[in-house]
Amino acid sequence: MKEILLAAASPDILTALRRVLSDGGLIDVRLCHSGADALGACSLVREGLLICHKLRDMAPAALARSLPINIDVLLLLASGQRPLEGLGNVLCMNLPLDRPEFLRTVRELLVSGQQRRQVSHRRGAEDEAVILEAKLLLLERSGMPEWVAHRYLQQCAMRGGKTLIQAAREMIGGVEM
């Protein structure tokens, strides 16, 4: 099973996140107080999930791009902050957290990943075009913002145990998810 790593500049945030995870039965958690700490800890684990809040020394996108392929990232965003796109190993959640959804997402990320790791994290232009087409379809159908459409695709992929590109192709093809 993947190891859980928490990264945040604030000790209070780390404590609160650790408590939520512990209350949900996830007690084995490593704490990282900076991006440098997180990079060091991630280099020592075989497989991991990095749950990341604001850091003082590194932007989330830079951290996610610097991580080895065996690490998935759950990025916690302040409301109004735009999610990262184009990184296959990053999922974003908005604060304040809905505890059940957060724990469900963490559990899904802990058991997923083996299938996704067989595919490169870097997408080609053709795959990006398919994902964009699926997001535009969602925009037309429901009027949701682009970043919400991206998040919806990510959630569909996670629930179905698929890659983002597979979920996008199914959406375009009209396959029910």
How would you explain this protein's 3D organization?
The protein has 177 residues and is α/β, with parallel strands linked by helices. It has two domains: 1-118, 3-Layer(aba) Sandwich (Rossmann fold), CATH 3.40.50; 123-177, Winged helix-like DNA-binding domain superfamily/Winged helix DNA-binding domain (Arc Repressor Mutant, subunit A). 50% of the residues lie in helices and 15% in strands. The chain contains eight helices and five strands, in the order E-H-E-H-E-H-E-E-H-H-H-H-H. The chain has helices spanning 11-23, 35-43, 60-66, 99-111, 114-117, 125-142, 146-160, 164-173, and strands spanning 3-7, 29-32, 48-52, 71-77, 90-94. It has a five-stranded parallel β-sheet. Helix 3 (60-66) links the parallel strand 3 and strand 4 (71-77). Helix 6 (125-142) packs across helix 8 (164-173). The radius of gyration is 16 Å and the shape is globular. It starts with a strand and ends with a helix. The model is unreliable at 114-121 (pLDDT under 50).
Counting structural domains, the number is 2
At the fourth level of CATH, the homologous superfamily of the largest domain is Response regulator
Mean pLDDT: 85
Question: What is the CATH class of the largest domain?
Answer: Alpha Beta
Residue share in helix: 40-55%
The proportion of strand residues reads 5-15%
Would you give the CATH topology of the largest domain?
A: Rossmann fold
Count of helical stretches: 8
Order of helices and strands: EHEHEHEEHHHHH
Sheet bearing the most strands, described? 5 strands, parallel
Strands, total number: 5
